[in-house]
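User: Hi! I'm working on a homework problem where we have to compare a predicted structure to a textbook description. Could you give me the structure for the chain below?
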Amino acid sequence: MKKIGSTFAPMLAAAALCASAHAGTFPDHPIRLVVPFSPGGSTDLVGRLVATKVSQILGQPVIVENRAGAGGVIGSDNVVKSPADGYSLLMATTSHTANPSIYKKLPYDTQKDFAPIALVGDMPGLLVAHPSLPPNNFKEFIQYAKTHKLSYGSAGSGTFPHLSMELLKAAAGLDMTHIPYKGAAPALTDLVGGVYEVKMDAYITAANFVKAGKLKLYAVSSLQRMPQLPDVPTIAESGYPGFESTYWIGIVAPAGVPPDVRKKLEQAFMAAVHDKTVTAKLEESGTRPIGGSATDLTALMDREFKQWPAIIQKAGISEK
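Assistant: Happy to help. Predicted structure tokens:
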């Protein structure tokens, strides 16, 4: 055994030295940040905002790449199959922890094949509808939805708009038809165009349409009212105490990224979110800046990996 140990010791030392050297020069070329949804959606807009600041901090471009489809699975699969060197990152969201309960067979193990990097922030949903819908407030909407067959759209099966609407359906006893899209932007475009009636959307993408009268806004899905919309009631205060559904955004990498590289990325993303200019822009967009560590993101995902199976099974959400 001593002979084997003496043979491999120099190899292990060399590997450790190589990893340390890699971390010392990281990054020496552009980093790819994959957003697993279409351009123009809330995740994409937040990703581009944070990526710009991280580029300045690390001294290398952080290029946002959209790979939409299958509720985030296509983009996630692309990242997990990339080298674990820190140059390919994924903007993970609520669907990241929900998909294992939705898809019968994923091309990766969500809990084992990804390494948490940082928690960017979260945002509540806005319950918005096409202006042709008769109800003018949340309580009227609930009554109308109970007597009319409505359709709602989402960025895809298992995405936050889908899960949040299913939670509302369960809480209020509604029966609505789900129309999944390959991203938030096309789903919102069709809602504004009157293709379907209602959607749970983000402030960053829906607010301007509401202001322009192209969408009606009934309620928000956080426990407390949004500072940006102080006159808009929460679902919780409108007859459904305790109702809460928020959309989180975090950064993950393929498992196996060297610890020093992970730490450097973690510090860069946390610093970016805590930058005063970025914080202000995130708040303006309706996003609550968190700037949490890898440990914070791990704790959040662990909770959701435990909570989603029962909720998704009860709602009957499954891969089509």
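For your comparison, note the following. DSSP finds eleven helices and eleven strands in the chain. Residues 1-8, 11-21 have pLDDT under 50 and may be disordered. Good luck with the assignment!
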